[in-house]
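Subject: Re: docking follow-up (zinc ion)

Dear J.,

Thanks for your patience while I sorted out the input files. As discussed at Tuesday's group meeting, I've set up the holo structure prediction with zinc ion included as the bound ligand rather than trying to dock it afterwards. The sequence and the ligand SMILES I used are pasted below, so you can double-check that they match what you have on your end before we go further.
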Amino acid sequence: MSQPKHSRLKVHNTLTRHLDDFEPIHPGRVNMFVCGPTVYDVSHIGHGKSYVAYDIIARYLRKKGYSVFFVLNITDIDDKIINRAKETKEDPLKLSERYAQAFYKDMNDLHVESINLYAKASDFIPEIIGQIQGLVDKGIGYKIAAGVYYDISKFPDYGKLSRQNLEQLTVHRVDPDPEKRNPGDFVLWKNQKPGEIAWNSPWGKGRPGWHIEDTAITLTYFGPTYDLHGGGTELIFPHHEAEIAQAEGLTGKKPLAKYWAHTGLLSIKGQEMHKSLGNFVPIQEAIQKVGVEALRVLYASTHYRSPLDYTEDALVQAASLARRFRRAYDQLQLAAGNKPGVRAESGNLKQQVYESRSEFFTAMDDDFNTPRALAAYIRIVGMAEEYAKSLEPETTSMLLETMKELAAILGLLETQSVPRQGFIELVSMLTGLRNELRAKREYAISDRIRHQMQKAGVTVEDEAK
Ligand SMILES: [Zn+2]
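The structure tokens for the complex came back this morning:
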């Protein structure tokens, strides 16, 4: 089926604070960068919310026909990593590699499959040094004892993303380093402290600051400007502000990213999720508890820019919806093999499916409004549940196709505990067996089979005994 033509994608852009028409720099192509994790620990379901949101965005952009190049960075050198490595008496790069591997597994298990490339900061040291050198040559970067810093007074646009002016950014700051030209200047290259991991540079041994890794990576893959930059709302300042200053200060080309899309935080019973608060839920734990489909339904039920408060209730509700989607799809697939039903369903139902499908796309075009899209999807599932047994074959396949098509955008209906074909054969074998048992009036065994099938999400309805 073709996509509804009437609506166009709009994206809320942090840079303009507007709902902007989405028009990539190069027609048909989207270069997209999202801030990835600092790998010193396992990722929790709050991280999951953000990465699933960008996964849905990338899936949707591809669905709209764009060729998307999605890069996510991995911060594998950082104070937090160095401190953790000291505690565990491990090599910091070995520790970060271990958690990077855990992160890739998390993304894989969450069905975040739209990322084309994971870029690790430590693989870009020459590019990072090149960028800092460029800033030093322009008089924007300067060396002091602690390392190389960025002089924010040299970049008049500093503050444009977070909507702060230079004055706001420089007052009320306690700054221990009197060598800095402005209190708000941020570090590009940190000189080595005794015992720390370090790389050679024109300014002595040291390691990159956090902000510079992103711009070194994006300049390498995308050039000076690209389409979409993502990350949590908490990264707008100073991290993303600093990225803009580095890239635009160096290349003179702007904007670094045309659209800035930020995700809202996940809280747990109103509190931030943190190990020290004892409310930390690792991604793997949540997947084991309720399954990936339930988690993805939970994430999609909140708009990506909104905060999400994680409660048991919300999770149970999401899990029951995910099961409902799967059951409706399976029932419809089973019904597809049967002869057409007797109840007249007419062209009206097809029209209703088509309208809900249009509504799904309209919602996604409205700044990737997944809660609205999900509501449209639930309406389609409702039709499948109501009419599964009485549909014309053509309508059945249209419904199946639509359910699968839209689920693929949200990353649902992708878990298969048993290979699909095998599952269907198993269900029809059990159904046949039950019919034989019932013909022999072996109701106790046939009811046990039905009960077990229902537990596995397959509804069996019998005519009166
Ligand atoms: Zn970043």
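A couple of observations from a first look. The chain has a mean pLDDT of 91. Residues 35, 214, 231, 239 surround zinc ion (CB under 6 Å).

Let me know if you'd like me to rerun anything.

Best regards,
T.
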